[in-house]
Design goal:
The protein is α+β, with helices and mostly antiparallel strands. The protein is built from seven helices and nine strands. Helix 5 crosses helix 7.
């Protein structure tokens, strides 16, 4: 069992309460000398137990000891007359034992509750993170929709090559916002070691490598904007893209000029 396993299992709390089986106790005692993290955690638990016990401690009433002794005398009168001092000592021990068990029970319940609350808190925190993530994704989609509805937005259909005739995509091009979005309808299947890559084409200059992506159908996302290109192109490249396009894998061109 790793240090992390011990920390998450609750064994340290039960060890501090002396409520472990011999096997689990051995596991903890073997791990403690080897881990400063475990020792520090155990020390913190013991300190918390002590504070908790002091918080919940209630002084027993003066009559409690006498009531316990009276019950013992009533059930065993002969022994009491022969060894009163011994019985009183046993009665005191019984009282201490009862108080100790009560305290341990309360502390045990506290730590079980604490563990349960911690688990619930963790689930809550994870739900909050998930909700925040969903909210951010929805907000990003709203921004995209607002941008592609802008009056200066141009929608340009990708012209597929003969090698990939089923390719269907639309390019949203806006010189005012300086934003580009690709709207995917259908792209060729990729191998596990391939990616799509966008290129900017201008005059006789070498194609400029832009975004590398692996897109699903019915997906719209932002890509890099370039001022005054003649066209954009999409190719299939090795995973992660490269500096020069593989023209044999050209799947389509988006004409901007003209």
């Amino acid at each position: 069992m790793t240090v992390n396993d011990i920390l998450k299992s609750g064994l340290l709390e039960l060890y501090a309460l002396s409520m472990l089986s011999a096997e689990d106790k051995s596991i903890v005692e073997e791990a403690l000398p080897q881990s400063s993290e475990l020792r520090a955690e155990l020390s913190a638990i013991e300190s918390a137990l002590q504070k908790f016990a002091m918080l919940l401690s209630v002084p027993p009433s003066p009559e409690l000891k006498e009531k316990l002794l009276s019950k013992i005398k009533a059930s065993k009168p002969d022994k009491m007359t022969k060894a009163k001092a011994t019985t009183e000592s046993n009665g005191t021990s019984l009282l201490q034992w009862l108080l100790l068990v009560s305290c341990l029970g309360l502390m045990g319940a506290y730590f079980v509750s604490h563990k349960s609350n911690s688990a619930l808190q963790e689930k809550y925190d994870n739900k909050v993170i998930l909700c925040d993530s969903i909210t951010q994704a929805q907000e990003a989609k709203i921004i995209i929709l607002e941008n592609i509805q802008n009056k200066n937005n141009r929608i340009i259909e990708l012209k597929a090559t003969e090698k990939y005739p089923a390719t269907e995509a639309y390019f949203h091009y806006n010189t005012e916002l300086k934003k580009n979005y690709i709207q995917i309808q259908n792209l060729p299947d990729l191998a596990s070691n391939q990616s799509f890559q966008l290129w900017a084409l201008k005059g006789d200059n070498a194609p400029v490598p832009l975004d590398v992506f692996e897109a699903d159908k019915d997906n719209i996302f932002e890509v890099e904007f370039v001022n005054n290109p003649d066209a954009y192109a999409i190719t299939i490249e090795p995973l992660g893209g490269q500096d020069a396009p593989t023209l044999a894998n050209l799947i389509g061109v988006i004409a901007i000029a003209g």
